[in-house]
Amino acid sequence: MTINERKEGDITILLAQGRLDSTSAQDTDRKLSSIIDGGVLHLVLDLSGLEYVSSAGLRVFLSAAKHMRKVQGKLALTSPSPQVKQVLDMAGFSTILPIFATMEEAVRSFPSAALRQDDKTNAPLVKLTLAEEVYLLALDNTRGVIKPVPGYALDYALAAAMLMELSLCDKIDTDLKTLKVVSSDPTGEPLLDYTLLELRREMEPKPTAFWLGRLTTEKNHIEKKILAQLVRKGILKQEDRRILWVFKSHRYPLMDDREVKEVRMRLRELILSDEIPDAREIVLISLGNACRLLDELFTTEEKERVRSRISSLARLDLIGGELANSIREIEINLSITSMPNI
Amino acid sequence: MEIQSKIGNGFTTLSLKGRLDAVSAAPAEATINKTIESGTSNIVLDLAGLDYISSAGLRVLLVTAKKLSRQNGKVVLCGLQDSVREVFEISGFLSIFPVAADEAEAAKSFQAK
Question: Which among B56, B65, B96 has the least Cβ separation from residue A173?
Answer without folding.
Answer: B56
